[in-house]
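Form 12-C: Joint structure prediction
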Amino acid sequence: AQTVTQSQPEMSVQEAETVTLSCTYDTSESNYYLFWYKQPPSRQMILVIRQEAYKQQNATENRFSVNFQKAAKSFSLKISDSQLGDTAMYFCAFCNTGNQFYFGTGTSLTVIP
Amino acid sequence: GAVVSQHPSWVICKSGTSVKIECRSLDFQATTMFWYRQFPKQSLMLMATSNEGSKATYEQGVEKDKFLINHASLTLSTLTVTSAHPEDSSFYICSAGGASGPTDTQYFGPGTRLTVL
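Section 2 - Result
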């Protein structure tokens, strides 16, 4: 079974600053996908960014970027120019070729005005 | 973007009764849907994979006779919690999409809060 670990239960960042959320995973598969999802208080899951494991280039989506280290099985999320609307739970997720998602335990991010 | 709806958004029931939760893909067809369970301040736990026209695939530790899944059409999957008990109280989320594999975006429903008294 796949396991996804987020070692930071809670984090805070000053508005406009940069913050990095950590994620590690364990798998024996060679082809897989990694995601970061955001869950605001509404509890609606929102896709933040996606990375295909076969791509060496780190994915970037506006203020969000990842540092994907395949050998280390690490997939961290960097949020630049943090905004108040970024306050939410952030979940790292692993997806296998069977399209099954396995989520980490989440990191609660608070952006401080 | 594609929309996935869930109904009801919140249900309260008495212990021993059965509750059905619907998950619908509103503007696309989903051969596969997924059901998750989320306890307060915890992560999403994959319960089962719902396959249109065939039996669902359950994750280890999930009782298939307790959580009945039916995927009768390409736009509807249902989760029935049978003989619900207070420990079944949780937030249930479905997702759909990825018809072409994980490169497709998974769309999540807004979730259903189940409270068993």
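Section 3 - Comments
The CA atoms of residues 17 and 81 of chain A lie 5 Å apart. DSSP finds no helices and twelve strands in chain A.
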